[in-house]
């Protein structure tokens, strides 16, 4: 026996889009059912729990529940009458209208949020690994295979030879999201800090999207690589037994966001082209300030830490900025000198919050420039990518009749001479001091790889015909964006005295 319940209904201002869901609870549409009677059983889905929509009455839904009881209900879809899930409060008719318009104009604030919500749903519900593959291929089988390989890689995420390029392919370009979420969850930080799962995932998606994928080097894969290296350093005995959960959370977030929104050109380029970012930050740590403020913007937009007391949330943002600003090449010698002084005097006290924060800064600096310390197969790929980004900037400067920045002229430099100079003047001094602080197998492995990689580039240089007699090995910055800052800091880096550093960088 069928029982038909008629509930109060609200009129719709437009027809409901005829979406057909492929999962349980599918929606079907009937044009033959009467206005107040039960729909034609032949028009209903064969699966129990299906929903039937009557096109002759745009205010009614027929829901076939277990026991074949049909309920006629309203389809106003007011947010307060729907589930508490935050993404179900979106009016799907508005989303459908937006998608059908296909507007290419600049998105407003609400439209930008809608775009990101759709992006979030895409990552959750669509095939993330094989988008665009012909439908005749069994997607679920391939998805499970790729996901299984990525999961196996995550079991060895602490290995120094972790291949981030392979991991990025296995996750269909979602390496930063997948890796960062895994590490936060592995440390139990999600539960400890009571992070909302939806907000966290949305934050990570937005972080990955805000990295410029067309940058050869400063993209989300680089951020994922730095995050994996940071994890390796956090596991070193000297840090693992001293760092608090808050320190670990801060370190992982800083690694994931340290180059957020990088434009693919260096600070001197922004200054000499009168870019608005250079004006905004007064030519001081321009990119690093931009990365920090972008990260804070996403934290506030998603409300990831909105449940914390305001003072705690502000302190986290300031200390996050202090870590990101430490990656500025113009301050490389300052940090290295302080680190060396602490090691010489043996006065690092890991029970001090300020000393632990300083070590997090040094760890992030090491993670940011660790490419020469990776195995040759990985290091070579990173070297080629960063050099190509240099050369692309040089091409732009030539096109617009600007002075070509150091190391950005592809006719005067090679990958080999840039890398040898970078290792000699920047990487080796930093990692030698890090090995003094943490004399472990990992530290010795990194120094060993760097020595072999330097010799390999030297051999390749000998085999190649010199491009120019004036081309000499020169130093590149730790962020690969200020190669000549040590020799020309006033012009290339913009100095350090005028920038107020957040409290997290307090003297230790």
Give the topology, please:
Elements: E1 5-6, E2 27-30, E3 51-54, E4 61-64, E5 70-73, H1 92-101, H2 109-125, H3 139-154, H4 164-170, H5 175-186, H6 189-192, H7 197-210, H8 220-234, H9 237-240, H10 245-257, H11 267-272, H12 276-280, H13 286-302, H14 310-325, H15 332-345, H16 353-368, H17 376-399, H18 415-437, H19 441-463, H20 489-492
Parallel strand pairs: 1-5, 2-3
Antiparallel strand pairs: 3-4, 4-5
Architecture overview:
With about 500 residues, the protein is mainly alpha-helical. The chain is built from 20 helices and 5 strands. α5 runs parallel beside α8, α8 (about 220-235) packs antiparallel against α10 (about 245-255) and α14 packs across α16 (about 355-370). Residues about 5-55, about 55-140 and about 475-508 have low confidence and may be disordered.
Summed up:
The chain is mostly helical. The protein contains 20 helices and 5 strands. Helix content is 51%, strand content 4%.
Please report the total strand number as a whole number: 5
Strand content: under 5%
For the biggest sheet, the summary is:
5 strands, mixed
Low-confidence stretches: 5-55, 57-142, 474-508
Task: For the structure shown, list the relevant keywords.
5 strands; globular; 51% helix; disordered C terminus; 508 residues; mainly alpha; 4% strand; 20 helices
